[in-house]
């Protein structure tokens, strides 16, 4: 018989890790509720044309694409924004603006597997559609700050940039959109020399090159240096001023922004304004990132609609939590229930249900093992208590409760079992 392994880049999420994933998902949903975001569940499989429209060549080349039985070209979603933009132009088109949407689930990209990167991975995705104001950008950054805080991460830092600065220089240098996209994708990968080699205009090249090393003692000083550097590029100058407004709103609302990078770019083609990523010092991979995309909904046939969003890599957040050792889920007492013989099984099941109804997890002995073996198994499964339903005790309306850690046991009335376990 063959031994089957997972497909490369995919993985099994085993119980302990699944517990952490569900914890992070629950925090993502709690944060969504605090900020007024409502969850929408979109299909894993979408039309290729939808997903590929503005994802960028890098993402398009790594999509899981196939023909369905109707000979239609479809793909597994590589991210959520295109699906939510489709919703905004169809089912949700008449909803009041701004539209705030959360999506949580698995996404798929044919990337080279490495630490913190899989071909199937989990994201929580937030989209705010309908506002062009800097407070909308600030909200998405503050929301991300809230999620990092909610899962217990420490010393996380934000990096900000603005696609409008880069695109403003390229557009004024008459670089066409297709070349612009290639330049920005290469800059996203920090392949700056190759990126600049695609730009014909020497003046434009020098303006971009000059941005790469701009730094200040504070993020606001960096923005001032960017403004001074691009003063001859009207669109880029307006973008830098927009970045300053967003920074001011986020910083004064309690979010610590550590870095502004003038040459920072993200690979998705649809970004038009502010972009950002969040990191912890111990890992060199972004835990989440997003930005403004003001033209995507119009591209899909909707009304011109400004929008901003963020995707958080839940697998990476879990890795960060493990790295910083901050996962402290509130553990409930776990209980094994053991009937000493076949005649008492029904009564033992009733007691199990009573304890479960009180919110205490119970594993019932379903293997008909002798009490000694069942207790060994309960120990191995890291149960906290064992409830032993024996004939003599049951006739008196009681059971034996064994504290498996202390190796102590006592006889307890059935009506007092939960109080004893929790006490």
Write a short abstract of this structure.
By secondary structure, this protein is α+β, with helices and mostly antiparallel strands. The chain contains 17 helices and 16 strands.
What order do the helices and strands come in, and which of them pair?
Blueprint: H1 15-35, E1 38-39, E2 45-47, H2 48-52, H3 57-60, E3 65-67, E4 73-76, H4 81-89, E5 99-108, E6 120-129, H5 134-150, E7 157-162, H6 163-172, H7 177-188, H8 192-197, H9 202-212, H10 219-229, H11 234-252, E8 257-260, E9 274-279, E10 288-292, H12 296-299, E11 307-313, H13 314-324, E12 335-339, H14 345-357, E13 362-364, H15 371-380, E14 385-389, H16 391-395, E15 398-403, E16 408-413, H17 417-422
Parallel strand pairs: 1-5, 7-8, 12-13, 12-14
Antiparallel strand pairs: 2-4, 3-4, 5-6, 6-11, 7-9, 9-10, 10-11, 14-15, 15-16
Helix pairs in contact: 1-5, 1-13, 5-11, 6-11, 10-11
